Amino acid sequence: MHAVRVGRQPPAGSGGSMERSPGEGSSPNPEDPNSRPMDQPSVPSDPPDHPPAAHSKPDQGSGVPPAGPGAAGEALAVLTSFGRRLLVLVPVYLAGAAGLSVGFVLFGLALYLGWRRVREEKERSLRAARQLLDDEERLTAKTLYLSHRELPAWVSFPDVEKAEWLNKIVAQVWPFLGQYMEKLLAETVAPAVRGSNPHLQTFTFTRVELGEKPLRIIGVKVHPSQRKEQILLDLNVSYVGDVQIDVEVKKYFCKAGIKGMQLHGILRVILEPLVGDIPIVGAVSMFFIRRPTLDINWTGMTNLLDIPGVSSLSDTMIMDSIAAFLVLPNRLLVPLVPDLHDVAQLRSPLPRGIIRVHLLAARGLSSKDKYVKGLIEGKSDPYAIVRVGTQTFCSRVIDEELNPQWGETYEVMVHEVPGQEIEVEVFDKDPDKDDFLGRMKLDVGRVLQAGVLDEWFPLQGGQGQVHLRLEWLSLLPDAEKLEQVLQWNRGITSRPEPPSAAILVVYLDRGQDLPLKKGNKEPNPMVQLSIQDVTQESKAVYNTNSPVWEEAFRFFLQDPRSQELDVQVKDDSRALTLGSLTLPLARLLTAPELTLDQWFQLSGSGLNSRLYMKLVMRILYLDSSEICFPTVPGTPSVWDMDNESPQKGSSVDAPPRPCHTTPDSQFGTENVLRIHVLEAQDLIAKDRFLGGLVKGKSDPYVKLKLAGRSFRSRVVREDLNPRWNEVFEVIVTSIPGQELDVEVFDKDLDKDDFLGRCKVSLTTVLNSGFLDEWLTLEDVPSGRLHLRLERLTPRPTAAELEEVLQVNNLIQTHKSAELAAALLSVYLERADDLPLRKGTKPPSPYATVTVGETSHKTKAIPQTSAPVWDESASFLIRKPHTESLELQVRGEGTGALGSLSLPLSEILKADRLCLDRWFPLANGQGQVLLRVQLGILVSQHSGVEAHSHSHSHSSSSLSEEPELLGGLAHVTSSAPELRHRLTHGDSPLEAPIGPLGQVKLTVWYYSEERKLVSIVHSCRALRQNGRDLPDPYVSLLLLPDKNRGTKRKTSQKKRTLSPEFSERFEWELPQDEALRRKLDISVKSNSSFMSRERELLGKVQLDLAEIDLSQGAAQWYDLMDDKDKGSS
């Protein structure tokens, strides 16, 4: 049952004591405080010592308690009062009967008196606020100057206007707003509460009354906006209401509620965008610029929240909830027109800028510490709190100092200019309650105007000054500025966090087709977004696999070139992962406007599971001629006020620092096992239709488990003799007893059916180096599986790398991941001279080593700036020339301590492909002792060599071309097939280039796949027709067929005469048929943007019968006109 009473008026002539709504009737004469409208009855105010909510209301209209029948009524009141006081003695009697100490009674009495005091203070404050709002002008002249309350904004500031007309409208609307609130709480909030916890299934609102006191707008200020499509309003709102909201959980006989509250603050309203159609305003955004003040009177069980100590805590928790919804950077958006463009941008716009706050020092602080009962005056232990909106930072404590030097740096996001303020409060740290030493406030608009502001600011409410350096950082969508910003940041000494080079704003919009929970139940998805050790969480959306979040998240980035965004979609219990996504932030640096706005496919999730997100990166740029950064990393900056440095230990006492690592004997002995899942035969049929009457086939796939890793092949539909032809690679050690577990399953909608298993001893493969067998599937009536296993032993020489890359390119299948060309082994021994935490305390450092999408995290070493990790990791490398090793050193709870980026191309230049030395850390101080070594993975059984033996090239022909592919002369005898496979295409004795240019191709028949393979590498010296460069692409056609089934086409390259493609194409056909075909290659360019015509730059036609398809070699071919299509 819901009781709603909003805005009820007393009957005419009732003479009740109900207070007048401030907006009803005509306004009283401002010159006569006692004048009232003739058509309104006189309404007496509340007695000064009784709260308004305490009126008894026998007839709902009168506030006068009913008179008793003479003396009998007075006697009853006396007896009632005596009985209440007698009840106070009951706890004392019970404590004595139970044999408890008198201390329990005194503690209970103190607790009750404290609760009573807090309660009376709240009621007194509520009465004063109501009285102020009832007759604001009279009390302003009579009593306001005698109190500590601030003047209304319209009294102090001429640009703030009164809006009594707006208050009258609010008063008129207030009862209907109460009806809406009742529906909202009963139909939306209550079901959400009941669904959030099984213990709250009987939760209900029993009473919802907004009361007769509406929200009042004390003043309105309109800001002249620089943007023509935006209107800014600041409303000084004050709500002193007799609201009453009661809730009940019937299952536990629990009742609670609110009876009266106050809320005061500045509410900013933004009308944006302005459109040229009705209703002119596209949307309304509302938020509090600063946290409003809140005071609540509790009823029922929530009376316990008025206990001293708990009262302020409860109000703070509720204010935190309001701040998470309606205080910057959060805002409430109400669209007024349908299909509003870029709602997410309006709901969570990019910050206006970033302010870097250098909290340098303070001087002349007051002394708060006293000793010997105040006879001896000490100093203070100052610390500072820096606050901008909801962003709060606390400095370290400087003991016994009236002129402290902190030397700390913080970065804050600024969303509204004007409006937001930088606030610094200084306190003296004490064991009980910290003493206030003073505060300063500064509008962020001053920093925006100055660019750099370096001043001593006086402290209000105390004595002394605080030294701040404030820098305004603009947000630029220009990746070219990043290197300059990173160079600047290397010269900044920053504590406790290194300076940021960019920010990332992630707009999480919605998800689609997330996997269901067990029992096909809808999940309650939420999202965790992490960049290094900073994690933010979205709200949970209940009972849906296509949730809509519409939330924004903001991150500071130290170096976006090496950082990644990790996205985890989980059920709200955090136990079930619904999908994940890892996105290197370097992708944004090449995106237009540093923005990605698209769907992202989730891994470890459903086939169609994805997230729609918009990611916006901005570079933080300090545009000021006053700033001068040191160019040498590690050089102290000109504003670094902390002259305390950690004491270096004596060289006599300290052990000598090692020059090289000392890994154990097992380091670098790993091998790579290449697992080729080819096909299966005679699998059992598991699919049944029509209740089992019709027998189908199976949809088989393979699961592999080895060395703690799991792999899974694709599903082949409706086939009992499937062919997968997929390759998997795993790093293995020579530990005996390891086995490769292989299981085959039939994919079904509910539970996958078992089709058999087999095991292969890893020792057998490692000893023989190669295994190619049909394995019988166990635990099933029939079926066998064809596997090919090869051990790849890393070789410490780069001479064979080009050949390995070419072989991998030839045998690569579309269904497998890119094959590894090398194995990287990393041994991280130790670090030295890491920065201290908060200036004096050593950190608890750990390291993260990342190559591509694979990472290894070390253990954390507690409380040291010279940790010894002694850990190793191995990584599969696919493109050694372009990949790099990224190392991040961080402290638990302290953030980044330094980083290292090592391109693997540097290791390729090193002797025996190994680097073993100290590496300096960037973005901080310190060094790490590291050993990194590469091993090239040469396959002896790739399938390319099988056809190479039929062609004999004399050794003399090889010796005549020692520079073949840059390393052929050094190919060892263990891989003679590689020499046979290579061609003279890149020989220095090659023929001159034709007039139309050349195209570089590899044409090869892959017998294991029964496919013709062609790789289009590049073109060079193409012909230019006209003034503009062409946009070339290559078209391939397998003649005599001219249908779409045999046509292939590369991507298009813009404005170049030497395009690089490196694209692979396949045709599935028998080898004898391939020899009867011709391959027609055409290099074309788009004529214009609007035209479908294609300009032919040249073509060549290859007769496959005249080419040795077993060699798989890259060769340059001259392009001809359409009339002459011969090959060269």
UniProtKB/TrEMBL annotation:
<keyword id="KW-1003">Cell membrane</keyword>
<keyword id="KW-0007">Acetylation</keyword>
<feature type="transmembrane region" description="Helical">
    <location>
        <begin position="92"/>
        <end position="115"/>
    </location>
</feature>
<dbReference type="GO" id="GO:0005544">
    <property type="term" value="F:calcium-dependent phospholipid binding"/>
</dbReference>
<keyword id="KW-0256">Endoplasmic reticulum</keyword>
<dbReference type="GO" id="GO:0005509">
    <property type="term" value="F:calcium ion binding"/>
</dbReference>
<dbReference type="InterPro" id="IPR051634">
    <property type="entry name" value="Extended_Synaptotagmin"/>
</dbReference>
<feature type="domain" description="C2">
    <location>
        <begin position="995"/>
        <end position="1117"/>
    </location>
</feature>
<dbReference type="GO" id="GO:0005789">
    <property type="term" value="C:endoplasmic reticulum membrane"/>
</dbReference>
<protein>
    <recommendedName>
        <fullName>Extended synaptotagmin-1</fullName>
    </recommendedName>
</protein>
<dbReference type="InterPro" id="IPR037733">
    <property type="entry name" value="Ext_Synaptotagmin_C2A"/>
</dbReference>
<keyword id="KW-0479">Metal-binding</keyword>
<dbReference type="InterPro" id="IPR035892">
    <property type="entry name" value="C2_domain_sf"/>
</dbReference>
<feature type="domain" description="C2">
    <location>
        <begin position="478"/>
        <end position="604"/>
    </location>
</feature>
<keyword id="KW-0597">Phosphoprotein</keyword>
<dbReference type="GO" id="GO:0005886">
    <property type="term" value="C:plasma membrane"/>
</dbReference>
<keyword id="KW-0446">Lipid-binding</keyword>
<dbReference type="Pfam" id="PF00168">
    <property type="entry name" value="C2"/>
</dbReference>
<dbReference type="Pfam" id="PF17047">
    <property type="entry name" value="SMP_LBD"/>
</dbReference>
<keyword id="KW-0106">Calcium</keyword>
<comment type="subunit">
    <text>Interacts with ESYT2 and ESYT3. Interacts with ADGRD1; inhibiting the G-protein-coupled receptor activity of ADGRD1. Interaction with ADGRD1 is abolished when cytosolic calcium increases, relieving ADGRD1 G-protein-coupled receptor activity. Interacts (phosphorylated form) with SLC2A4.</text>
</comment>
<comment type="similarity">
    <text>Belongs to the extended synaptotagmin family.</text>
</comment>
<dbReference type="GO" id="GO:0006869">
    <property type="term" value="P:lipid transport"/>
</dbReference>
<feature type="domain" description="C2">
    <location>
        <begin position="651"/>
        <end position="775"/>
    </location>
</feature>
<dbReference type="InterPro" id="IPR000008">
    <property type="entry name" value="C2_dom"/>
</dbReference>
<keyword id="KW-0472">Membrane</keyword>
<comment type="function">
    <text>Binds calcium (via the C2 domains) and translocates to sites of contact between the endoplasmic reticulum and the cell membrane in response to increased cytosolic calcium levels. Helps tether the endoplasmic reticulum to the cell membrane and promotes the formation of appositions between the endoplasmic reticulum and the cell membrane. Acts as an inhibitor of ADGRD1 G-protein-coupled receptor activity in absence of cytosolic calcium. Binds glycerophospholipids in a barrel-like domain and may play a role in cellular lipid transport.</text>
</comment>
<dbReference type="GO" id="GO:0061817">
    <property type="term" value="P:endoplasmic reticulum-plasma membrane tethering"/>
</dbReference>
<dbReference type="GO" id="GO:0008429">
    <property type="term" value="F:phosphatidylethanolamine binding"/>
</dbReference>
<dbReference type="InterPro" id="IPR037749">
    <property type="entry name" value="Ext_Synaptotagmin_C2B"/>
</dbReference>
<keyword id="KW-0812">Transmembrane</keyword>
<feature type="domain" description="SMP-LTD">
    <location>
        <begin position="159"/>
        <end position="337"/>
    </location>
</feature>
<feature type="domain" description="C2">
    <location>
        <begin position="336"/>
        <end position="457"/>
    </location>
</feature>
<dbReference type="InterPro" id="IPR037752">
    <property type="entry name" value="C2C_KIAA1228"/>
</dbReference>
<feature type="region of interest" description="Disordered">
    <location>
        <begin position="639"/>
        <end position="658"/>
    </location>
</feature>
<feature type="domain" description="C2">
    <location>
        <begin position="801"/>
        <end position="923"/>
    </location>
</feature>
<dbReference type="InterPro" id="IPR039010">
    <property type="entry name" value="Synaptotagmin_SMP"/>
</dbReference>
<dbReference type="GO" id="GO:0035091">
    <property type="term" value="F:phosphatidylinositol binding"/>
</dbReference>
<keyword id="KW-1133">Transmembrane helix</keyword>
<keyword id="KW-0813">Transport</keyword>
<feature type="compositionally biased region" description="Low complexity">
    <location>
        <begin position="53"/>
        <end position="65"/>
    </location>
</feature>
<keyword id="KW-0677">Repeat</keyword>
